[in-house]
Design a protein that fits this description.
single chain, 282 residues, mainly beta, 5-stranded antiparallel beta sheet, 4-stranded antiparallel beta sheet, 55% strand
Length: 282
């Protein structure tokens, strides 16, 4: 399925962290170190620049403020009133580079800790973790033994959290406790290098498969239901948005792991209408 894809933005460097919020898609350009948003009509706004680190994951607080993750300083920054300020410093708890994140409807941030510093070392193993940051600023580890935790999504009823395991080629499916804790139900699917993800109302997960160059819909049973190819490109992240959350935003880049190490990448955002609307966060 490729014919219905429509490009709404091109010419970026490396787009990540898409979140639909107040009628716009918010995201970052990691390499340009910018926080951006775009309307469905293609009207682009640049909101902030992170001068000293690489932004990656995003979250939206219940009051509407945006939180931006910075990978190497291991900080979460709050964007409000046109400025970035420190929201949480995770350098005391993260054991490696932090990568993606999500904030649920209760204002709880779930942050992926790779367990090692990028670039990835050989033989790194299942050392990744999920760190929970509560609205009062306290933080604790709620999941471990993950193989490169990447995209994270939470259901609207706050009973389920899914995280992409990039090295594990699967999705880790968790039950959420009322206090935000996580219990592993099992692992779903089988796709190469899963990156960003989002949930729909059937409980299926849209997954950006980096090396397969496709956005893949995985059912709750782990079976592939649909595939949207982006030939010649790498799938980076996805989010369901639009008026009824039936617009799938597909973030991709013309690059490779080797080119990324050299800073070579050209990114774009495509959209396509899907049958099942989005659910939860993002």
């Amino acid at each position: 399925m490729t014919a219905d894809l429509k490009t709404v933005l091109g010419g970026g460097r490396y787009f990540e962290g898409p979140r639909w919020h107040r009628g716009r898609l918010w995201f970052v350009d990691c390499m340009a170190r910018t926080l951006l948003s775009i309307s469905l009509s293609g009207e682009l706004q640049q909101h902030a620049t992170v001068t000293d680190d690489t932004p990656c994951g995003l979250g939206v607080l219940p009051d509407g403020d945006i939180v931006v993750l910075t990978m190497f300083s291991k900080r979460l920054l709050r964007f409000a009133d046109g400025k970035l300020s420190l929201y949480a410093d995770l350098s005391h708890i993260a054991t490696g580079t932090i990568d993606d994140m999500i904030i649920d409807g209760q204002g709880r941030a779930y942050v992926g800790d790779l367990g090692f510093d990028l670039p990835p070392p050989e033989g790194r193993g299942a050392v990744g973790r999920i760190i929970l940051v509560l609205p009062d600023g306290s933080a604790r580890v709620v999941a471990d033994s993950l193989r490169f935790p990447n995209g994270i999504a939470v259901s609207s009823d706050h009973r389920r959290l899914v995280v992409a395991e990039m090295d594990g080629a699967c999705l880790a499916d968790y039950e959420m406790a009322p206090d935000g804790g996580l219990h592993l139900r099992g692992r779903l699917g089988g796709m190469s290098d899963p990156d960003g993800i989002c949930l729909d109302r059937d409980g299926a997960v849209w997954v950006a498969s980096f090396t397969e160059g496709a956005f893949v819909r995985i059912g709750r049973d782990g079976v592939e239901r649909q595939r949207i190819a982006v030939p010649g490109r790498r799938a980076l992240a996805c989010a369901l948005g639009g008026a009824d959350r039936s617009t799938l935003f597909c973030l991709s880049a013309a690059t490779s792991y080797e080119e990324l190490r050299k800073g070579k990448s050209v990114s774009r955002i495509d959209v396509v209408e899907v049958d099942v609307p989005g659910d939860g966060y993002p």
